[in-house]
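Look over this entry.
=====
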Amino acid sequence: MTAQELLAVEGIDKTSIGVGHTLSLHAKLDKHLRSGDDSRVRDYLIVIRCIWPNLDVCPIDVGILKKAVKFLKLKGWKIYLHENHDDRISQYIRRT
């Protein structure tokens, strides 16, 4: 799946992301972190990466992003968010 396909499935228009979408993504990521659902945490991190390729400008709290990455690493996932895998998004976060 490509980044464009994922955003279309999620119903997200990358050019018109508002505060509501940002808060919703933050809340869902936090919810899945608390429940320990590594698959959904992975999914939401990939969605966030597809919307904001430069995570330095991502409006979602950097603390929760760091917690999510740490959580996934502890669950055995390798993180490649700094690379561009928009043509095959499954490569952003892979099992070790």
In short: Helices lie at 3-10, 19-35, 38-51, 62-74. The radius of gyration is 12 Å. The beta strands are 77-79, 93-95. The chain is about 55% helix and 5% strand.
